[in-house]
Design brief:
Elements: E1 4-13, E2 16-26, E3 31-35, H1 42-50, E4 57-62, E5 65-67, E6 74-77, H2 89-93, H3 95-99, H4 104-117, H5 133-146, E7 151-155, H6 163-180, E8 183-188, H7 191-197, E9 200-205, E10 210-215
Parallel strand pairs: 3-8, 3-9, 6-7, 7-8
Antiparallel strand pairs: 1-2, 1-4, 4-5, 9-10
The structure holds adenosine-5'-diphosphate (2 copies).
One adenosine-5'-diphosphate (ADP) binds near residues 13, 40, 41 and 43.
Family: Belongs to the ABC transporter superfamily.
GO molecular function, one term: ATP binding
Organism: Paracoccus chinensis
Length: about 220
């Protein structure tokens, strides 16, 4: 069964029709990219799946259950990272586990593991303002992985990473995708990035956002 089902989702912002009748399914262990030009509704769709923005009509079903708000089975990384500026990298990464009431020793052990996975070992005790934008993005990703949600929602996770480090960061992410067997939904406007990281690409066309095509970029590689 698909982990996430998007069923007949429509979204209007006042008189702006952002999404029209989106139907999609997302499976475990697969990375799906939502690709399309600026304004086609990628971020809106991701936020609706996250439960952060209400749909005008339609529903989101996660693990067989219709959801109407955020939940622990979905973790997300958005462009503004939303890190706590007063907390260290270690505490930021372990924060979702802290909210669940996990003891410090255990959550720090898990946090350290993901800090290492995203290549930030040695930065555990730094504060967000001491890091570059790309490093802050990695902290956001480590935090999302650490909570062990079934579904990871990522909005342009490489946008703040400079050109030289981007490929390395993409490879780190792909390794995590393969290791963790989770459901990944990833937003980008870069075709190059989409083809490199995705099992499946959903092309959205703008005004209003609609699914115009679904592509499996891995088919020709095997
Ligand atoms: P993206 O990088 O995904 O194209 P934008 O920079 O266009 O995103 O927008 C960033 C955020 O601002 C979006 O998450 C969206 O919720 C909000 N936003 C975009 N367009 C408008 C608008 N016309 N009015 C109010 N908020 C908007
Ligand atoms: P994308 O992520 O593909 O750039 P968005 O989801 O940010 O697209 O935006 C889709 C459409 O909805 C755009 O026309 C945008 O201006 C509009 N929009 C997004 N967020 C808001 C908002 N909070 N208020 C009003 N309009 C918005």
């Amino acid at each position: 069964d698909p982990v996430v089902r998007v069923e007949a989702i429509c979204k209007h912002y006042g008189s702006t029709e952002a999404l029209r009748n989106i139907d999609l399914q997302f499976e475990r262990g697969k990375l799906t990219t939502l690709l399309g030009p600026s304004g086609c509704g990628k971020t809106t769709l991701l936020k609706i799946i996250a439960g952060l923005v209400p749909a005008t009509s339609g529903q989101i079903v996660v693990n067989g259950r219709a959801v109407t708000g955020p939940g622990p089975e979905r973790a997300f990384v958005f462009q503004d990272f939303a890190l706590m500026p007063w907390a260290t990298v270690l505490r930021n990464v372990g924060f979702g586990l802290e909210l669940k009431g996990m003891a410090a020793a255990e959550r720090n052990r898990i946090a350290r593991r993901y800090i290492e996975e995203v290549g930030l070992q040695g930065f555990e005790d730094k504060y967000p303002h001491e890091l570059s934008g790309g490093m802050r993005q990695r902290v956001g990703i480590a935090r999302a992985f650490a909570v062990n949600a079934d579904v990871l929602l990522l909005d342009e996770p490489f946008s703040a990473v400079d050109e030289q480090n981007r490929r390395k960061f993409q490879e780190d992410l792909l390794r995590l995708v393969e290791m963790e067997r989770k459901t990944f939904i990833f937003v980008t406007h870069s075709i190059e990035e989409a083809v490199y990281v995705s099992d499946r690409i959903v092309l959205l066309s703008p005004r209003p956002g609609r699914v115009s095509n679904i592509i499996d970029p891995r088919i020709d590689r095997t």
